[in-house]
Design brief:
- This protein is an alpha+beta fold.
- The chain has two domains: about 1-180, no CATH class; about 185-344, Histidine kinase-like ATPase, C-terminal domain (Heat Shock Protein 90, 2-Layer Sandwich).
- Helix content is about 60%, strand content about 15%.
- The strands form two sheets. Strands 2-4-5-7-6 form a five-stranded mixed sheet. Strands 3-1-8 form a three-stranded antiparallel sheet.
- A hairpin with a 2-residue loop joins strand 4 (about 250-260) and strand 5.
- The chain is elongated, with a radius of gyration of 32 Å.
């Protein structure tokens, strides 16, 4: 960041020096004519956008110093030339001040808007978490009270308490997983095995709902640099969503296909599809219309895929189902290479 800032300053300074030298050369051939003075506004504007009011005024000061030779008497043909050049310096100062002031104001307003947006998101997240934790907590308190009072089936009550506690633990773990950074041990893995293992983890859920999982993979190994456990988790989240969206007797298709320089994993269901609002907010944490959903499954999957330098896209049409596509880079080394530890 510091290097970019330094290069930017050097570039602006060189632009001003070169512009002044070109001015002088033109003036020597055509005395009395200063025809490029409007170009001084360009570095002033760039400095205002990049460095704000301080940058624009410092750039104006440097430009004015370099422009001073044109104000000397032997460079000036008439009094009108002198007035014109003096006005140029005055007007360029006004421009530098206004451009810098407006740039600083715009940055300040943008930061305030980002802060307001962050606070709003924190409030929404807190509200969603509290709402999701409240229901199992009510169950735990209610059945604990019944056990204490000796009412009802204690074994059944204990089972429900245990189930509610597991749901609370799941919610807390999802929030923590989304909030904390990922530490990945990337290794060249055969994506066929990663997809098949993720499908196996979803098989019981699919059978309970009467949904068929159809997995189609290439006959030869397809290697990509991934952490299999994290990638499986992302795929499980997405496959489970497809299962939940499907009706009894429907099929969820999972496939791997070569795609340009990528391997594309496709998860397609034939459910009712998503409305426009749900699709537009699918990657926003805590935004869920699903009963009992935290709205973190897809954002967590996206976070994992992004950390693998992959891409995820979701296409959905009401009445036609949803298609998730994941692009992961191909490994051309033949597999088996460990890439070391990466922090995301």
């Amino acid at each position: 960041m510091t290097n970019k800032r330094t290069y930017y300053i050097i570039a602006i300074g060189l632009f001003l020096v070169i512009l002044s030298l070109v001015h002088i050369l033109i003036f020597q051939k055509m005395p009395g004519r200063v025809i490029l003075e409007e170009l001084y506004y360009i570095p002033i504007l760039l400095s205002a956008l990049r460095f704000g009011l301080t940058g624009s005024l410092l750039t104006w000061l440097l430009a004015s110093i370099l422009y001073l030779p044109f104000l000397e008497s032997h460079w000036t043909v008439t009094i009108l030339d002198m007035i014109d050049r003096a006005l140029h310096i005055i007007l360029s100062f006004v421009f530098a001040f206004l451009a810098g002031y407006l740039s600083d104001r715009s940055k300040r307003l943008r930061k305030e808007a980002e802060l307001d947006s962050s606070l709003k998101k924190i409030g929404q997240a807190a509200s969603a978490i509290v709402h999701d934790l409240r229901n199992p907590l009510i169950t735990i308190l209610g059945f604990s009270r019944r056990i204490h009072e000796g009412k009802g089936d204690a074994v059944q009550a204990a089972r429900l308490i245990s189930k509610s506690a597991e749901n609370m633990e799941k919610i807390v773990n999802n929030v923590l997983d989304f909030a904390r950074p990922l530490y990945l041990q990337l290794k060249d893995e055969d994506l066929r095995l990663v997809v098949q293992q993720a499908s196996e983890l979803c098989k019981a859920k699919a059978e309970d709902k009467g949904v068929t999982l159809f997995v189609e993979t290439p006959e030869i190994p397809v290697y990509s640099s991934v952490e299999s456990v994290s990638m499986q988790r992302a795929l499980v989240n997405l496959i489970n969503n497809a299962i939940e969206a499907s009706e009894k007797g429907q099929t969820v298709n999972i496939s791997i296909v070569p795609w340009k320089k990528y391997f594309r994993i496709i998860i397609k269901d034939n459910g009712p599809g998503m409305d426009k609002e749900t699709l537009e907010n699918i990657f926003i944490p805590f935004h869920s219309k699903k009963a009992g959903g935290t709205g973190l499954g897809v954002p967590i999957a996206k976070k994992i895929i992004d950390s693998h330098n992959g891409k995820i896209a979701i296409e959905s049409f009401q009445g036609k189902g949803t298609t998730v596509t994941i692009d992961l880079s191909q490994d051309t080394s033949g597999g088996g290479r460990e890439n070391g530890r990466e922090t995301v």
